[in-house]
Amino acid sequence: MTPGQNLSLSAKLLHEGSGYAVARADIRCDGKLACNAEITFRLVEFPNAEFRANMGRWQRSSSSPMGALAHG
User: Fold this and answer.
1) Domain coordinates of the chain in residue numbers?
2) Spatial separation of the C-alpha atoms in residues 28 and 32, rounded to whole Å
3) pTM (global) more than 0.70
4) Which of 18, 30, 40, 59 is the most buried (most CB within 10 A)?
């Protein structure tokens, strides 16, 4: 890969529940697999209302999907 090349990303949520989630993602360059990852992460509540509100403001100003805040 070199600067300026277009990359395509695909991601899939494999599991969500029991307090954790698993996602898998692939990045391709010119149709060839450049890297991939499977990530396991723990789901937790927001620590307080102020933090949740700040994350909501950030989400609305970015292209992040709102579903990311649905669990807190």
Assistant:
1) 7-69
2) 5
3) no
4) 59
